[in-house]
Specification:
Blueprint: H1 2-10, H2 16-23, H3 27-39, H4 52-55, E1 60-68, H5 77-84, E2 89-94, E3 101-107, H6 110-121, E4 127-134, E5 140-141, E6 144-145
Antiparallel strand pairs: 1-3, 1-4, 2-3, 5-6
């Protein structure tokens, strides 16, 4: 099953027949394995990496460092759950180091993200401090190079 996961991780649109052929298995077996992986929550979702800038949509992404006071009995988990339930939040990680959680937030503008941090995130009980870092330009996202345009990279040679 690991081979199926690796193939799907790199291309979730890969046809079952192609996966079966690559692994020398039947389509039925591969399909059943994928259904089991989905049922067992090993495969959580299938995502598409979109270059919204090329599409003409402006979005702003920020990385928010969050310091917390852990809650008795549940530690950081209950606060993390409150945070990851917000629609604006794309990703949340428990971290080691100088902050406790890292959240990746998306909004339509800097003002939207600032408003989210000020009115929704920082007001959660247990959140003691936040630090925001705005993404200026993505070069690679989830393994996909954002502007992989073919160009001649050879050095110019002159006589």
């Amino acid at each position: 099953m690991k081979e199926i996961l690796e193939l799907l991780e790199h291309d979730a649109r890969r046809p079952i027949g192609e996966i079966a052929s690559m692994l020398h298995r039947s389509e039925y077996e591969v399909e059943q394995d994928i259904k089991k992986l989905e049922k067992d929550k090993v495969i959580l979702s299938y995502n598409t990496v979109i270059n919204w800038e090329k599409f003409g949509e402006e979005t702003v992404t920020a990385i928010i460092e969050i310091n917390l006071t852990p809650q008795r009995e549940v530690g950081f988990d209950a606060i993390a759950e409150r945070i990851y339930r917000f629609d604006e939040v794309r990703t949340v990680y428990l971290m080691s180091g100088s902050f406790d959680l890292m959240a990746i937030i998306e909004g339509k503008s800097l003002k939207d993200i600032a408003n989210f941090v000020a009115t929704r995130l920082s007001t959660i009980e247990g959140v003691t401090q936040t630090r925001s870092h705005f993404i200026l330009k993505p070069y690679k996202k989830d393994g996909a190079i954002m502007n992989d345009e073919e160009r001649d990279r050879r050095l110019v040679v002159t006589p």
